[in-house]
Structures are given as C-alpha cells and as structure tokens.
Design brief:
This protein is α+β, with helices and mostly antiparallel strands and about 240 residues long. The chain has 9 helices and 7 strands. Helix content is about 45%, strand content about 20%. Helix 7 packs parallel to helix 9.
Length: about 240
C-alpha cells in the first residue's frame, strides 16, 4: 500500500502550512482542510466541535478563529475554572475596566482585564455596558488560563474591519461535518479492508493521512471516499502483481 498519499488528499504545500501554523491564516486551506484543522483545534483543548465553539473571522486579510461563548463555558467546566475576584473601575468619563482573577482545579491562577466604552450611554444601555465588561473580563481570563490564545466574541465586535464568518467562497461547517461513523460502519470498514487484503498497519497509514488516529475518528463525510480508496488501491496492486 505504498501509494496511499498519492490517492488520498495531499498535504497542503509548505508555504500554506507556514501561514497556518506561524501566521494563523486559514484562507489558503481548502474547505475539507479547514474542517480538519477546526476539529483538531477543538480536540487539542477538549472542546466539542458539534457545538460550534469556534467561529471564523477575517482580520487584516487573515482568516482565523475566535472563541464563542460555548468555548469559554466548556473550558470553564472542563478545567474547573472559578472566578475568584472581579474589580471594576471607571477610567475617565467614558471608559470602564474590569479585572477578573481566576483559578483552575490544579491551583493555577491568572488575571485578565476587559474594557468597554460608555461614551454616550445612559440608563439601561449603560448598565448593559457594565455587565458586558464583566463578561469580557471573565471570558478573557478563562481563555488565558486554559491556554487558548484566541479572541473572544465580546472582543471581535469592536475590531475595526473584522469580517465574521467564513469567506463566501467556502462552505461554513455544519454539525454533520463533524459527525463520526457508527460502530456498525466501523465494522463494515474493517470487513471491506480485510476482504481487499489490507492489514491493520496499512489501514492506520491510510486513515492517518486524513488526520484520523483510529477508525472511531473517521468522519461520516470521509467514510465513502476512504472505502473507495481501499478498493482502488487493492485493485491497482492486484493489477500490478
């Protein structure tokens, strides 16, 4: 099974990987590549991709990700993050700043600030601005404490020129894009693989090219394509023998 990489989706060119890993720019990835990257980022920090915890945003021409409320809620529960202190203060007449301190279940501590402009706000609108500032501080300290260096959705609203969402040329991910195959589909996959002469090592090499560590991780959207690859490679080797 030496031609796996030639038939399955190729890795992006080195310059594309550099823009993703170093600059955080996802714009040159294909839609399937972005979906895989999205899923891997979620898995790396324990987020459930089915809840759409992250969203796309274009900043200064770079397509990247920011954290939605679902992300910080999940992280707070996953890491046992507790807000230990909130301190707010007015700066001049139009700026309000809140400092949030937090601790996780391991005893690590961190602090972050949130700031909002109250210029021209009165009554309920001003009260909402104060509450938003607290929310911003809590979410920022959660992301910092959990090691996820992304903007929070309360921040992206005020970033000049930011465009929220995936570019029109792409297809925004749906919940089904992250669904994994059922146990029955896993059994069928192995049955087809063995029937066509694939051993366990070769199967792992094949699905590894797609970024899957085991058949349990295979996405429904990739399932049929991988089965066709199994059959195509086996037929090609039989024809050459």
């Amino acid at each position: 099974m030496t031609e796996i990489a030639a038939i399955t989706a190729p890795m992006p060119p080195a310059e594309v990987l550099e823009r993703v890993l170093v600059l955080g720019d996802l714009s040159r990835l294909t839609t399937p590549e972005r979906l895989l990257y999205y899923r891997k980022v979620c898995e790396s920090v324990g987020l459930n991709p089915l809840t759409r915890p992250l969203e796309y945003i274009t900043l200064s021409g770079r397509l990247t990700l920011y954290a939605r409320r679902d992300a910080t809620d999940q992280l707070r529960k996953l890491h046992g993050v507790s807000i230990t202190d909130l301190t707010g203060q007015a700066v001049a007449d139009d700026l309000y700043v809140v400092t949030a301190k937090a601790r996780d279940r391991e005893g690590r501590v961190d602090a972050a600030t949130g700031a909002v402009s109250l210029l021209g706000l009165k009554g309920e609108a001003r009260a909402n601005g104060l509450m938003k500032c607290e929310t911003k501080a809590k979410r920022r300290v959660t992301l910092s404490l959990c090691g996820l260096g992304l903007l929070d959705e309360t921040e992206v609203e005020t970033v000049p020129g930011a465009v929220i969402g995936e570019p029109a040329a792409g297809t925004p991910p749906k919940d089904d894009d992250f669904a994994t195959i059922s146990p029955g589909q896993q059994k069928r996959f192995w049955a087809i693989a063995r029937a066509h002469g694939w051993d366990e090592s070769a199967v792992k090499d094949l699905i590894g090219v797609k970024g899957f560590g085991s058949t349990r991780e295979i996405l429904v959207s990739e399932y049929d394509g991988l089965i066709e690859t199994l059959k195509a490679l086996a037929s090609k080797e039989q024809g050459q023998s």
